[in-house]
Design the sequence.
């Protein structure tokens, strides 16, 4: 009873929102709501195949692995909630389109509500992927064959559009694309993900596109990692990485496998500008096997550590190790070097608890907007030449990080 | 009544021996009238005139026979041997006489029309081998038990590598060995036991590792390089037939024992681990698919490695054989037990493509230390029953058991990569992997066969074979720990002074996997042979067929143990295996979906007809075989859109023509053409995908793989001067359609593919020659092959990576192979010494994904020594000393060392006893 009332309320809000947004764009006075062609009308969704539209305000239960076949689409209206049971995963060979709104995000979570308990979106051979204003929570863990699952995995030369979404408490890689995907990864927030390994945004073999205005906090591995395939060096991975804020990453997989704010290797090309790197194990790593032009395509990045040295201890083993953070901004095992446009100062986040190492799934109260006294303000480069056309509404900003003072950045 | 009479006579005869004790000795030797070759295996019958007493024996390797201490009197001597006229002679033996006769048996063309159920060539010595090679319809090389016994070798693989046109493909651990016949990968040859294909204990392929077969069980090894229609058609390189020991004509009791040691374990310790806690079955196999494994379900003791002094290696063998029931029933049992400790120290570098120079470079350097123990037991049993001269039933059984364990240590330092690189010597991320590996293999092969003469001209033979191979590899565990060494600069100058800083060792990962498979064949074979005479020419017509049903079942299950994160989220330091804390990442294993879980079947139905025309000047042979293959697989896939089963069937028509021109009694020229096929390995068809977690490369199966079909041409000149001597000079050429090799199909997916057309050709020379006590035996092979495969090709100027066909030799092919053995044979002093030298030229061992580069095994020379000496009538002492030059096997790309394996010399000493 209570539930249905709630859903009526949510539906009402959704319809109103739809009406409002339609009227905004519409030049005519009349409005209409086009009903979805394949509404998914049962609460319980079981495999093998699924297609159609998840409806606003409804809560669905996925009870087994489901597959969206080539030619089929899985679409979500704003405000649909999906609870995944039995560690299931969603395989997409057709089209995935999750489009929420700021007020009514699409939510996917597991029944267990703990990190690593559902298998994410395996879009290896999908036709198109669009995820906007969605919350993907507690992804990762083993699939039915014991393999690791990435939250969003694409291995095809398709458009991958991930904007304004939250990835919370996942495990393994969060967004992993390869084999020529064209990515637009904007204004997302990736928090406390990866148990003992996993990158937040891991882009490989021949992908192109933009990674901007994202916030990555407390990722096990690196915030953003770029590579090309050694056996297929062309087309190169070419990514514009700017105005991201990456904080407290790279600690959980041990000092032998450092995590970084941004790393570029295996022949990838990156434009790395206007990012803020705070309290990461390492800052910007340009590996020895990266494209040598990478040495000239970075700048205006802010690096800061709230301690000069950080001591990591294993109390069980009774041992500890101390790391010099300031010398890790450009790690000595890579070829990247400080440039004069870089800023080495406290970015003056609105709220920051000076976090370093935290467990997978830790909660946070940090607010990474900039205080007016921040040295990040006005330190940006808006004129570097991009590899790809800048996405509309997401040009590089004169301020650094995901939250420029003009409010054009991350909306979370 | 008759019985009483016979008994009385026997009694009288016995009495006469005892009372009068008038005895004599009768001996002699057999030769062929044409070739003047000594004839072994001639059946000799000596009967008293009234046939009340009959003595029988068989001539030995040198054609000699002897009857000792027989009563004097009148006898009739009868001698019989296949292909020769029957010989009869009257003999009168007087008291204390030692009578010697030299007998030449007449080679009879009329015998060409008479079928026989008996083989009369002594199969166990080298003279017999020469006769086999000479008399065979097809082109073959034969090695006898005697040659194997005297060689430095202890298993079939060691023996094979000394045969003309054969090299052995070994894995880096030295525990797998497959035959490469005429430069063609193991997939292009088949392995038979007693003429019938055996099942494979390998989880993916069709072939059998030959190092599990003790050479002491073998009567001979036959390598057929051309195929007759009566032989199975799936051999392009050739057929390796392992013929097990047969019941002897007179009682045999032999025992052999040796003890040995590898130099490697004088140089370093042997690494061992406890096998007591290893679970033979995986967790879900024990508890069901839905049970959840907990950390305590995985043992630690098999990862608790200890350094010890290796025990000596040893072998022990016994052979007993005898004929019973008036020679009607033959029986032989032979068991050979080997317990070998061996190892390898390797350099095992990773060679990656350097994107900017378009050349490969070393991206990781690793050293590996393997300590292996291999216990082989082979048991062969043979029973035959000669119902009469026209009917014979034979039961052969071979049972092989292998128990293998290996401890591996690998220390890998990355020069580049996702964990950072090497800036100055001494730095870089270091990954140590400690593995414990065990497996048990069983191979059971039972053949029941019969031969029946229906008329003077018609022989029917049949066989039913059950063959089973299993392998169980429980709980392979790889403990992975890592650390990193960086420089710490004391000044701001990155080129200035620095010190090293090493992180603690972290506990990274422990994959645990269980794998087992079972491969079962049922074969039914029947043949009919008709021999007739057209004027003075022989005509042999043979028809027959085979049906085989194969079922294969492969299961694998893997668990990933990941370190438990500390409370603060940090990664666990690694102290030792007993304090490491882990969680089970996938508590239900792979469920039903391990990429290695599959069921495969293969049904072969074949029929053939062939005819051989024998003239005194030439033999002409021709025929055709038709083989129908019906194969398929079943897998369970977690993907709903995956192909999960397939049925593939195809029919091949395989003609074979051979011509042998007899230049002289001892020499001939052969010409041959035949068509043959090679089927894909079972697992290659399975549409599995194994993604790489660290790169974007995948490995994939290929259900669309076609079988390879080859046209084969051969020519050989052969000369068999005498005894063990021979000179063979041959050449071959093969055109292979749809050869199968692993390639990168789209530059990132590694998959078995058909590669259009390949050609391979070569020459082979083999020769054995004695000068008095000294002899030389050897062979030389030159092979050239060509195949084209797509490679990743990067044009740095244009900034493109495309696929470009690269022409190269076939994988596994060696260009020059030379085997030379110096032999010293002193019959008087009963000494035999063999010094065996081998040169192996360059061979392409693995195809590299990038254009213009491939892994080549570098030319190498090795030397082995074996010697034996008769101590007395019963005992022979022997020694075998292998790898005396401490040859390392090195594989390179251009000038970069990929793998360099050092096995070190090994020594063994032993005793043989013969009753």
Sequence:
């Amino acid at each position: 009873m209570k539930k249905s009332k709630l859903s009526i309320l949510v539906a009402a809000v959704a319809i109103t929102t739809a009406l409002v947004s339609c009227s905004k764009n519409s030049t005519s006075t009349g409005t209409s709501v086009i009903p979805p062609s394949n509404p998914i009308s049962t609460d319980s969704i079981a495999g093998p195949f699924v297609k159609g539209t998840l409806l606003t305000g409804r809560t669905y239960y996925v009870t087994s692995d489901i597959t969206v076949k080539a030619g089929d689409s899985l679409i979500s209206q704003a405000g649909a909630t999906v609870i995944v049971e039995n560690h299931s995963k969603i395989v997409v060979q057709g089209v995935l389109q999750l489009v929420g709104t700021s007020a009514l995000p699409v939510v996917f979570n597991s029944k267990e509500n703990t990190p690593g308990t559902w298998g994410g979106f395996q879009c290896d051979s999908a036709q198109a992927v669009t995820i906007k204003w969605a919350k993907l929570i507690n992804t990762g863990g083993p699939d039915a064959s014991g393999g690791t699952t990435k939250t969003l995995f694409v291995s095809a030369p398709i458009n991958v559009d991930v904007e304004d979404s939250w990835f919370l408490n996942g495990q393994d890689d969060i967004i992993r694309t390869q084999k020529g995907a064209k990515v637009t990864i904007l204004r997302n927030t990736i928090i406390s993900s990866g148990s003992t390994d996993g990158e937040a945004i891991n882009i490989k073999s021949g992908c192109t596109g933009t990674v901007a205005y994202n916030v990555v906090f407390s990722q096990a591995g690196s915030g953003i990692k770029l590579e090309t395939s050694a056996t297929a060096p062309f087309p190169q991975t070419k990514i514009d990485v700017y105005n991201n804020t990456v904080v407290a990453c790279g600690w959980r997989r041990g000092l032998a496998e450092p995590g970084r704010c941004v790393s570029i290797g295996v022949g990838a090309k990156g434009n790395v500008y206007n990012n803020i790197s705070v309290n990461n194990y390492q800052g910007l790593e340009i590996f020895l096997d990266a494209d040598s032009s990478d040495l000239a395509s970075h700048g205006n990045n802010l690096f800061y550590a709230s301690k000069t040295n950080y001591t990591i201890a294993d109390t069980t083993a009774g041992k500890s190790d101390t790391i010099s953070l300031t010398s890790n901004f450009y790690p000595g095992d890579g070829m990247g070097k400080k440039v004069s446009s870089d800023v080495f100062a406290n970015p003056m986040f609105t709220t920051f608890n000076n976090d370093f190492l935290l467990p997978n799934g830790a909660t946070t109260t940090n607010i990474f907007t900039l205080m007016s006294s921040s040295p990040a303000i006005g330190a940006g480069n808006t004129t570097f030449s991009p590899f790809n056309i800048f996405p509309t509404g997401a040009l590089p900003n004169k301020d650094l990080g995901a939250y420029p003072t003009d409010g054009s950045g991350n909306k979370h | 009544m008759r019985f009483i009479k016979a008994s009385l006579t026997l009694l009288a005869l016995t009495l006469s021996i005892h009372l009068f004790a008038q005895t004599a000795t009768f001996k002699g030797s057999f030769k062929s009238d044409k070739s003047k070759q000594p004839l072994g295996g001639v059946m000799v019958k000596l009967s008293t005139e009234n046939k009340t007493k009959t003595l029988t024996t068989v001539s030995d390797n040198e054609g000699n026979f002897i009857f000792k201490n027989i009563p004097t009197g009148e006898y009739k001597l009868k001698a019989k041997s296949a292909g020769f006229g029957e010989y009869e002679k009257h003999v009168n033996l007087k008291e204390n006489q030692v009578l010697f006769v030299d007998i030449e048996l007449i080679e009879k063309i009329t015998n060409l029309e008479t079928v026989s159920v008996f083989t009369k060539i002594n199969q166990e010595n080298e003279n017999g081998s020469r006769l086999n090679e000479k008399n065979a319809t097809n082109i073959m090389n034969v090695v006898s038990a005697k040659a194997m016994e005297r060689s430095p070798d202890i298993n079939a693989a060691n023996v094979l590598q000394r045969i003309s046109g054969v090299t052995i493909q070994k894995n880096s651990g030295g525990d797998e060995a497959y035959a490469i016949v005429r430069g063609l990968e193991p997939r292009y040859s088949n392995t038979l036991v007693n003429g019938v294909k055996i099942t494979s204990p390998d989880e993916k392929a069709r072939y059998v590792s030959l190092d599990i077969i003790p050479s002491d069980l073998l009567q001979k090894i036959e390598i057929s390089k051309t195929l007759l229609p009566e032989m199975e058609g799936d051999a392009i390189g050739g057929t390796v037939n392992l013929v097990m020991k047969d019941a002897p004509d007179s009682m045999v009791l032999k025992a052999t024992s040796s003890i040995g040691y590898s130099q490697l374990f004088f140089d370093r310790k042997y690494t061992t681990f406890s096998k007591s806690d290893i679970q033979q079955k995986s967790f879900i196999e024990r508890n069901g698919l839905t049970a959840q494994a907990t950390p305590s379900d995985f043992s630690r003791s098999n990862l608790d490695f200890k350094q010890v002094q290796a025990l000596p290696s040893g072998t022990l063998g016994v052979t007993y054989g005898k004929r019973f029931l008036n020679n009607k029933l033959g029986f032989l049992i032979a068991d050979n037990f080997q317990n070998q400790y061996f190892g390898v120290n390797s350099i095992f570098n990773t060679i990656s493509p350097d994107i900017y120079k378009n050349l490969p470079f070393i991206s990781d350097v690793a050293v590996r230390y393997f300590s292996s123990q291999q216990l082989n037991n082979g048991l062969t049993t043979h029973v035959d029953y000669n119902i009469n001269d026209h009917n014979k039933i034979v039961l052969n059984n071979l049972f092989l058991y292998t128990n293998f364990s290996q401890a591996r240590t690998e220390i890998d330092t990355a020069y580049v990569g996702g964990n950072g690189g090497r800036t100055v010597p001494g730095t870089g991320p270091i990954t140590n992997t400690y593995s414990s590996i065990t497996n048990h293999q069983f191979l059971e092969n039972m053949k029941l066969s019969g031969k029946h003469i229906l008329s003077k001209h018609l022989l029917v033979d049949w066989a039913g074979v059950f063959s089973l191979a299993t392998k169980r590899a429980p709980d392979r565990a790889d403990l992975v720990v890592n650390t990193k060494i960086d420089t710490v600069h004391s000044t701001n100058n990155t080129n200035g002074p620095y010190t090293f800083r090493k992180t603690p060792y972290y506990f990274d990962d422990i994959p645990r996997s269980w794998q087992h498979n079972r491969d079962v064949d049922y074969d039914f074979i029947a043949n009919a042979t008709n021999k007739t005479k057209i004027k003075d020419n022989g005509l042999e017509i043979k028809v027959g067929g085979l049906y085989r049903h194969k079922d294969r079942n492969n299961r694998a299950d893997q668990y990933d143990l990941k370190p438990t994160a500390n409370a603060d989220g940090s990664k666990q330091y690694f102290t030792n295996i007993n304090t490491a804390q882990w969680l089970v990442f996938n508590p239900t294993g792979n469920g039903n979906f391990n990429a290695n879980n599959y069921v495969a079947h293969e049904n072969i139905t074949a029929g053939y007809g062939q005819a051989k025309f024998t003239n005194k000047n030439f033999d002409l042979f021709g025929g055709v075989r038709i083989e129908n293959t019906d194969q398929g697989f079943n897998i369970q896939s977690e993907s709903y859109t995956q192909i999960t089963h397939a049925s593939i069937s195809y029919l091949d028509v395989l003609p074979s023509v051979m011509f042998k021109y007899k230049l002289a009694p001892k020499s001939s020229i052969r010409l041959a053409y035949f068509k043959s096929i090679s089927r894909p390995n079972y697992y290659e068809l399975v549409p599995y995908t194994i993604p790489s977690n660290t790169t974007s490369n995948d490995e994939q199966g290929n259900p669309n793989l076609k079988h390879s079909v080859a046209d084969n041409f051969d020519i050989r000149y052969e000369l068999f001067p005498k005894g063990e001597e021979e000179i063979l000079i041959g050449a071959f050429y093969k055109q292979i359609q749809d050869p199968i090799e692993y390639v990168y199909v789209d530059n990132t997916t590694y998959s078995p593919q058909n590669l259009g057309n390949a050609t391979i050709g070569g020459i082979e020379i083999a020769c054995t020659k004695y000068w008095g006590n000294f002899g030389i035996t050897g062979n030389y092979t030159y092979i050239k092959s060509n195949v084209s495969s797509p490679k990743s090709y990067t044009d740095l100027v244009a900034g493109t990576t495309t696929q470009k066909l690269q022409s190269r030799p076939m994988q596994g092919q060696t260009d020059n192979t030379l085997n030379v053995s110096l032999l010293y044979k002193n019959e008087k002093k009963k000494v035999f010494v063999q010094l065996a030298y081998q040169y192996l030229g360059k061979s392409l061992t693995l195809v590299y994904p990038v254009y213009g580069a491939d892994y080549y095994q570098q030319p190498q020379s090795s030397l082995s020594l074996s010697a034996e000496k008769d101590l007395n009538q019963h005992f022979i002492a022997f020694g075998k000393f292998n790898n005396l030059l401490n040859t390392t096997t090195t594989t390179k790309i251009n000038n970069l060392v990929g793998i360099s394996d050092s096995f070190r010399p090994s020594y063994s000493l032993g005793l043989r006893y013969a009753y």
Summary: Confidence is low (pLDDT under 50) at residues 1-6, 8-27 of chain A. The two ends of chain A are 33 Å apart (CA to CA). Residues 158-172+182-412 of chain A form one domain. Helices of chain A lie at 2-25.
